[in-house]
Amino acid sequence: MTGCRRCEEALYRIRVQGTLPPQWSAWFEGLSISHEAPDDTILAGKVADPAALYGVISRVRDLGLTLLAIERLELDAGSAER
Question: What does pTM read for this prediction?
Answer without folding.
Answer: 0.81
